Design the sequence.
């Protein structure tokens, strides 16, 4: 076999193996607490790996957890060019509805754009609580707001520089970034921002104080405008991707403590 073809075959094989690994992260995990499930949504161009630490903590505490791979992710940036906000939401709502069929209570959480989607789910369904991690309720870079006007002409741009503190965190996003995905996120932000007061379930709002992608003021605004009880956690020493970065352990522990208070969970049998 020619060397060029062999390299291509090996590359395809590696890609398929990576996609398979990502999808395994998204499988629901049955637990000994079947009454409550948690749906976790990854970041804008991330994968379920974004949420693996929180997923593991929730599973260890007895919850059933689903972390789906959202449409267009885990493959190549251009696969997001044909997808709109409703395509993303249809996938997330289907995952929610699947959990709701088998569980009395469903909690929804997300990172960044996944948290924005969580807010939209809370407006369309009735989750028992929401976990809002580094919620993308605005953009630190004002140029991002041009995306809805230019994405048909400019399809990809270099991804923003990472602000990760733990450089071994392992989370991966598309680079270059698909401009349409940014445009659709801005659309989604517009949908939820004006209706935050309608979300009355208990909410956990966590954010990095030094977040460069989504400044912390957006989290403070979110916490002030939600219509239900809110617990906040503002973290030092971490970047935007708080679910995988240096303070991920504290975030997971605080999330579990919040859920124990916010969600009426019957005691497991001895």
Sequence:
């Amino acid at each position: 076999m020619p060397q060029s073809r062999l390299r291509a075959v090996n590359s395809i094989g590696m890609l398929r193996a990576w996609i398979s690994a990502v999808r395994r992260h998204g499988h629901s995990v049955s637990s000994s607490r079947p009454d409550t499930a948690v749906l976790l949504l990854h970041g804008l161009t991330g994968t379920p790996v974004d949420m693996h630490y929180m997923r593991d903590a929730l599973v260890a505490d007895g919850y059933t957890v689903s972390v789906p791979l959202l449409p267009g992710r885990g493959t190549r940036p251009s696969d997001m060019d044909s997808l709109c906000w409703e395509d993303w939401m249809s996938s997330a709502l289907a995952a929610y509805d699947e959990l709701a069929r088998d569980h009395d209570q469903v909690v929804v959480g997300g990172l960044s754009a996944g948290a924005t989607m969580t807010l939209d789910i809370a407006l369309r369904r009735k989750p028992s609580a929401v976990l809002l991690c580094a919620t993308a309720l605005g953009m630190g870079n004002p140029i991002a707001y041009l995306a809805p006007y230019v994405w048909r002409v400019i399809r990809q741009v270099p991804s923003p520089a990472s602000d990760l503190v733990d450089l071994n965190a392992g989370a991966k996003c598309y680079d270059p970034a698909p401009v349409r995905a940014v445009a659709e996120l801005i659309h989604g932000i517009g949908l939820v921002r004006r209706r935050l007061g309608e979300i009355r379930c208990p909410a956990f709002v966590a954010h990095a104080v030094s977040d460069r992608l989504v400044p912390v003021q957006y989290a403070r605004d979110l916490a002030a405008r939600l219509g239900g009880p809110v617990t906040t956690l503002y973290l030092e020493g971490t970047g935007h991707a708080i679910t995988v970065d240096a303070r991920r352990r504290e975030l997971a522990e605080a999330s579990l403590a919040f859920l124990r208070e916010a969600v009426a969970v019957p005691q497991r049998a001895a």
